[in-house]
Amino acid sequence: MLSYDSAVPNGQDSPSSGPLPVPSAKPMSTSAAGTIATSGHGQVQRQHQHHLWLVTGPAGCGKTTVAEHLANALSIPYIEGDLYHPQANIDKMSGGIPLTDSDRWDWLTELRKQSNSRINSGADGVVVACSALKLKYRDVIRVAAYYDRTLLVHFIFLHAPQELLLKRVAERKGHYMGANMVKSQFDILERPREDEVDVITIDASQDSDEVKQDALEKVQAALAANM
């Protein structure tokens, strides 16, 4: 079985080749109306689509604010990625030590499992706040669609100048992610590539209400395009 997890044994770096294929047991095609599966008897069965929305970007870009707004507006569950970091990761970040790739694999896999669990429990979709700074991190989440062929994965990338994010994080109270971590995140940040067609880009330097409105409008447009 093709799995991104097995492509990076022991948490070691390996080149990423972009979005992973999503195998299926039966021939399948997609249209604006949704996923259409062909049964072994030639019958066409239209399947209801589900959506996984990953709100991504460096610390201070407003992931939690935007993700909570989208989840409330769409009436779907919200997962705060920071809550699923193991204590060892939190201790490192609290001490100003950047996480390595190996620190993130289990965290990303857990977020993927939590997302699939919400969908399997009956939710039409789920919103997750997760930095997903590198292409291969985003690919780990994309594997969620392997386990559910009705699932469409989307990334909402919030971008803003490093200086602005440093200022925002410095003003936060009671969060383990300090301002010194913003630079480390920018150092490893891999902005979405042109061939990552499942990414929506939002200018997070706008006023908070403008960012939320912009994100919701683009999400609603994406939903309408897949109805």
From the spread of the alpha carbons, the general shape counts as globular
In percent terms, what proportion of residues is strand?
A: 15-25%
How many strand segments? 8
Average pLDDT confidence is 82
**Pattern of helices and strands:** HEEEEHEHHEHHEHHEH
Helix- and strand-based class? alpha/beta
Q: What's the alpha carbon Rg, rounded to whole Å?
A: 18 Å
Oligomer state of the chains in this structure: single chain
Ranges where pLDDT stays below 50 over 5 or more residues in a row are: 1-39
Secondary structure: helix percent: 40-55%
Largest sheet report: 5 strands, parallel
Number of helices: 9
Distance between the termini: 30 Å
Report on the structure:
The chain is α/β, with parallel strands linked by helices and 227 residues long. 41% of the residues lie in helices and 19% in strands. It has helices at 4-7, 63-74, 87-94, 101-120, 135-142, 144-147, 162-171, 180-188, 208-225, and strands at 28-31, 34-38, 44-47, 50-56, 78-80, 125-129, 151-159, 199-203. Helix 2 (63-74) packs across helix 9 (208-225). The longest helix has 20 residues, at 101-120. Residues 1-42 are annotated as: Disordered. Residues 27-38 have a biased composition (Polar residues).
